[in-house]
Give the backbone structure.
Amino acid sequence: MRILIHSFGSYGDMYPFVGLGKELKDRGHEVLFYANSRFEPIIKAMGLGFVEIGHAEEYERFIENPEIWSEHRGLEHLLRGLLNFLPQIYHDTVPYIKPGETLIIGSTLAMSARLIQDSHQIPGVTVHLAPSIFRTLHRVPSMPGIFLPEWLPVSLKQAFFWFADKYIMDPLVADGINKLRTKLNLPPVNRVFREWIHSPDLVIGMFPDWFGEPQPDWPEQVRCTGFPLFDDTENGLDETLLSFLASGDPPIVFTAGTAMKYGD
């Protein structure tokens, strides 16, 4: 099977998919990875095929832009940046599709994978690294700008998501997606983050159930697999660090993320 992987983000987003690609390659599949050239070395080191989507300099400029870390403008900056590459990713992927022998895997924001799945009718898998991407009217995740306690009436929760989709989320992504869908003779999509972002074939939650307990209204094709424990280092951990970890209670580690350059 030829497996095409679309993954976008920082190292924390890429490593799980590189590990997934390596496992699939080890099982005998041909794996082709689409990503920014910043990640080319780690992808090729695992023996995976690589297709460049954007230069390393563009990646660095993107994460160094303070707007990406803005509470109010960050999401817009991120989504518009990804949509700018959507036509290129689509056209660079199509030549590698072998009818009847191709599977496409996309990360949460790899809208290109869903678009190709729709246009070429090939099987696809969406992989989410965090449970917060799943809509639910039950235990709604706590996120900036969202406060929907369990006791709130379902009708109010539905109204909140409808408003957020129509006036916040769809204006950011639906127009860009639908422009390309129109050229491909595909019907338009709306409320993108309610259903369309999830592959109808299979959705993998790459986290354990205790980290994000599946809710009754999650898509029925969701399967939780646990955290992807993958690292490309061959030298192991430093002896000083190992000694610290072995002494006393297990520590709690917090990090602002691999792309954060403005944290104190």
About this structure: DSSP finds nine helices and seven strands in the chain. The mean pLDDT is 89.
